[in-house]
Amino acid sequence: TVYSLSGCPRATSAMKKAKLSGEQMLTIKQRASNGIENDEEIKQLDEEIKELNESNSQMEADMIKLRTQITTMESNLKTIEEENKVIEQQNESLLHELANLSQSLIHSLANIQLPHMEPINEQNFDAYVTTLTDMYTNQDRYQSPENKALLENIKQAVRGIQV
């Protein structure tokens, strides 16, 4: 039995092998310190990756909201366009009906001469209708027998017009 390492034949050969040069010790120290620095860099990179992932998640959520809003807006726009088409068709129909009514009124009142006016035609149609409207709303100003007969003739002429 050997009581010390120096007396042990196996220990001496192991110690000779285990002895490191100064250069080898410096390399080991550098590797150890680099490992510590790398650990901090890795922690910092992990933190940055975590922040980027959170930021990406928030951006993806915002993009989903934007896509939903855009889809809703597009749907609303399509609905409005369809409603506008219906309104345009109704307007066209009303304009056509108005043109037919105007022609019917012109035809029915062609033989009736209003005071101080030419016979009704397409060119003076608006003025003729304005004069008629004035005559009916202000009948107290048109009390003469001639005007009463004229208003009665107009009533008879327009009775046949279908509205």
Automatic annotation (TrEMBL):
Coiled coil regions, renumbered to chain: 35-104
Location(s), subcellular: Nucleus
Broad class of where this protein is predominantly found: nucleus
Gene Ontology MF annotations: DNA-binding transcription factor activity, RNA polymerase II-specific; RNA polymerase II cis-regulatory region sequence-specific DNA binding
Domain of life: Eukaryota
Keyword rRNA-binding: no
Keywords: Coiled coil, Nucleus
Entry GO CC: nucleus
Keyword Oxidoreductase listed: no
UniProt protein name: MYT1L protein
High-level lineage: Eukaryota, Metazoa, Chordata, Craniata, Vertebrata
